[in-house]
Design brief:
Shape: elongated
Oligomer: single chain
Order of helices and strands: EHEHEHEHEHEEEEHHHEE
Radius of gyration: 18 Å
Strand order of the largest sheet: 2-1-3-4-5
CATH class of the largest domain: Alpha Beta
Number of helices: 8
Number of strands: 11
Distance between the termini: 18 Å
Structural class: alpha/beta
Length: about 220
């Protein structure tokens, strides 16, 4: 899942981004509304965690732009105000969910994951294919009933492959969904991660390389 965090309190923004990355999400961070509009014009995000009171361009206007563009991106709006009228107004603008500050990080993570599931065709909470069972909420992976310990990027790649339901996923698509914009697209990070993921999942191999196209399970 790829997430954009838009928050002008830089310590909070960076802390949220760090926490979401530990949950195997690819996260970009910006600190004002103008930068947010620039990012959503370039990258495809599953979820935008959007502070309402932003400098340069207000969060309301960023949300309106996402809706105007008809993007499948879901918006979780943050605000320091807990007034019901503010929550209603934010939802009427086009936000998909609303979370007042201060918030528990566990709740934010749960809401981001729930919104991420709504950006594509509905899928079961636990993904299963070829003897592999992946639970995004518990961050658990099993193969044939045996638990497999994965690093965050390995988990993210496996989740993307399972969500494709047998379709081929290109290296570029994996890079977009599992890494943030600071990753050099010309590195072999995808190939290396898939290689270590294959090794950890064990024999027989379940990740198939499709020459010239990408990978599938």
């Amino acid at each position: 899942m790829r997430v954009l965090v838009v928050e002008d309190e830089q310590l909070l923004a960076d802390a949220v981004a760090t926490g979401l990355r530990r949950e195997a999400m690819a996260v970009d961070v910006v600190y004002d509304g103008a930068a947010a509009l620039e990012r959503i014009g370039v990258n495809d995000y599953d979820v935008v965690v959007l502070d309402r009171d932003l400098p340069l361009v207000h969060g309301d206007d960023v949300c309106r732009k996402i809706v105007e563009l008809g993007m499948p991106t879901r918006v979780l709006m943050l605000t320091a105000s807990g007034d019901v009228s503010d929550r209603v107004e934010g939802l009427e603008i086009g936000a998909d969910d609303y979370l007042p500050k201060p918030f528990a990080f566990s709740e934010l993570t749960a809401r981001v994951r729930a919104l991420g599931r709504r950006t594509s065709m509905p899928l079961p909470p636990v993904l299963e294919r070829a003897g592999i069972k992946l639970d995004p909420n518990r961050r658990e992976v099993f193969r044939d009933g045996k638990e497999v310990q994965l690093a965050p990027k390995e988990f993210a790649v496996l989740e993307v492959l399972l969500r494709s339901e047998g379709a081929v996923v290109s290296a570029e698509q994996l890079l977009e969904k599992a890494w943030d914009e600071n990753t050099d697209p010309f590195t072999n990070v995808v190939r290396v991660t898939v290689m270590t993921l294959r090794r950890k999942l064990g024999e027989p191999p379940v990740i198939v390389t499709v020459p010239g196209s990408g990978y599938r399970i």
